[in-house]
Amino acid sequence: MNITDPVAATAAQHEGMDEAAAHTDAAWAATCQRAIAIAASLQLPFQAADLVAAGLVGEPRHPNHWGPQFAIAHRNGVIDAHGYAPSKRATVRNSACRTWIGA
User: Fold this and answer.
1) Which among 1, 35, 38, 89 is placed 20 to 30 Å from 76, CA to CA?
2) Among 52, 53, 29, 39, which Cα is nearest to 100's?
């Protein structure tokens, strides 16, 4: 049986997210953070696809750039996890997607 240290697992997750964030276009990341703050201010559940659909931010160069931006906003107290819902992206066929709400 493999038992994972939850503190080490969280630290590794943050390290991976920070590494991905370091490779994200800085201008897109800044726009994304503003978009997340705007969506959070509405106090309604949202996901990445909602930000794009509202015209608040465009798609990143790679889909893996979304996660670190939501993690940063969460760590900064802008948003809280709200649950999961089917993704609104046609490219992922309704897979489970984290939803967020303003903190």
Assistant:
1) 89
2) 39
